[in-house]
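Section 3.1: Structural characterization of target chains.
Under the original work plan, the team committed to producing a structural model for every single-chain target entering the pipeline before any wet-lab resources were allocated. The record below documents one such target. The sequence was received from the expression subgroup and is listed exactly as submitted; it comprises 427 residues.
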Amino acid sequence: MKTRRLEDKLNLIMPAKRLQLLSAFFILAALVVFAVVSIVNPGDQFSNIFFWRPDDRADTFMDFYNSVYDTMYGPYEHDVIYPPLCCLIFKLIGSFLPQSTYVKEWVARGGFRIRSFQEIQFSLLMFFAIFIILFVGCMQKPLNKRGYFEKMFITLAMFLSTPVMFALERGNIIIYSFVFLLMYFICYDDNRPWLREVGYICLALSAAIKLYPAIFGLILIRDKRIKEAIRTVIYGIVFTVGPFVFFGGIKAIQQMLSAIGKFKATENYGISFSNGVSFVLFGSTGYHRVLSIGGMIVAACLIAAVFMVGKKPENRWKLAAALSLSMLGLVENCGKYMIAFMIIPWLYFFFTERRLKIIDYVYAILMTVMLAPFPAGIFNDVRVYYDRNTMIICWSAIIMSVLLLADVLTEFVRNHKKEVKQEVSAS
């Protein structure tokens, strides 16, 4: 009874629409604090969040430059892990450069050789500009009940969130995987069949860029859209396997899979369940077989939870959250940009007007914390690759995963009991 009264008061003071604005305000406020702290301690805080390594300030945008460079020399011969659609895009960009640029022998991190060219710098500008246009356009649908200034305020908060800014700092193509996945959710329940089909194509494109978003196709199976799921798989095969013909066919597939295996076996320093637990237990990160298996088990549970989530519209965000969080168990070397996928559940958490429970306010806090750029400082005494900001994201994701699993399972059992009672009453 007391819980009910508390929830009533919270919904009166902070309904969903107001809570979303508060969350967006907090993200932007964190950025302002971050900027002020950076002025007081020049360089340290900025490098903490936005540089891959705090002591390497010359590496900005190098995911883009290195990818273009490697692709022009034959990507899968040099352990590139990107799917061929990405390589095809980077090959097109690389073709704008003078061919004399590539006469020298290939070297690791050769993007430094080409980043001073005006053609490649302009290509990077267009790479970002197209993403911004798509991103701002996509944000209109989940915010369609908002006024113009509220839409722009929330869109700005999401654009200046830690994962998006980190992805831009890296020049990583994950920004397109994210925006195509957002399009998939936007189109998913549209009344127009052709637009739903666009959504399936967007899911295939998202997976063709970063592979792991393919798990979002499970939502189609959950909703028994089997024909649509088959078509999406066909689109995925076309976009993911088809471009291999430009890079050596079956041999290139084998080389890419081998490169992915090598990458997974390297020293871990990214956002993941196993790294979060490793840091607390051992004071450092790195590959721990038991923790890696544990992370995969949690990921499997989150994926299974997708089939237990209730089918009410207000539960749609839980599907996006469970699958986005599961990536942190499936992929261990995740940069902070991986959390960009959590923007999707954040948006749909507030999309439907509903009465919020206490746990919903906890979810809102955790998602906000994951997206906010906290000026949290570096663990210089332990490890240069890890910082408090990374740990805050890791543990917010871990806590949210546990709560979400408990919440979904509890609701599933409760609904099952109701169904059993109704069947007994009916008989």
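Residues 1-18+268-427 form one domain.
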